[in-house]
Amino acid sequence: MRTRRPAGPAGALAGALLLAGCVAPGPGEPAPTPRSSAASTVAPAPTRAPSPTQTPTPAPSPTADPALAPAPPPDGAPAPAPAEPVQPPEPAFAATSAPIGPELAARMAPSWRAGCPVPLEELRYLTLTHRGFGGEVVTGELVVHADAVEAVTGVFRALFEAGYPIRSMRLVDDFDADDDASMAADNTSAFNCRAVAGTSSWSEHAYGRAIDLNPVENPYVSGAGVFPPAGAPFADRPQAPGVVHPGDAVVRAFAAAGWGWGGTWRGAKDYQHFSATGR
Ligand SMILES: [Zn+2]
């Protein structure tokens, strides 16, 4: 178990030491052994421990203020030079597309079965870079129809460049293909071999040509009904992160690919829903 260290010089020092300790040998390099003096030259050998005649330094304690009393280096080791802050390069958008292999087919058992309108061979597994709600760059996944790969990839590139945040983007199979559970988790998804809610007609999701985007921020609203229920605060479409509005960068990105938005439907509005057919 690791304990939480306070920020400040002591914390920075601990981080630097931790980093130094995390450098693993590369492939083909011998692992250092405790007796290998050559390999241990990376870390200076500890100098003698402070003697009782030296000016006592306050020992670190849970109540010590690290800003006032920096903790001494462990074992009397010389303090390393302050680490230079490393500015990582701005991450770029990346996307992959692959056929559904046996392993993925097994994972997709909840969302696909014999009798679905599209065979697995016509579906593709995508990984797509997107932003999280904290601005972080993460990789999500979607299953879409093979003929939608280019359009969907272009849309998500545009969403990434617009800084549009996506809460979660995992296959509905992680929610046992339960649309209510996926929506409640604010999960963005595409393929799901299911009927339109309340009907016996295949949903556009059953063809892999529809995407539900941030369902909590963009719920399905029918009269007083809001789905998922957690989307109730967003039913009247506030200006908030993730909330899609007419003509915004999200709607424009899908429109550029020829996809329509359920937020334009007469009657019930499906604000999370974008599809190739507009249905
Ligand atoms: Zn939908």
From TrEMBL:
Residues annotated as domain Peptidase M15C: 198-275
Name the UniProt record assigns to this protein: M15 family metallopeptidase
* Origin species: Pengzhenrongella sicca
Comp. bias regions, Low complexity: 34-46
**Stretch forming the signal peptide:** 1-20
Keyword set, alphabetical order: Signal
Q: Does the keyword Signal apply?
A: yes
Composition-biased stretches (Pro residues): 47-91
Q: Where is this region: Disordered?
A: 22-96
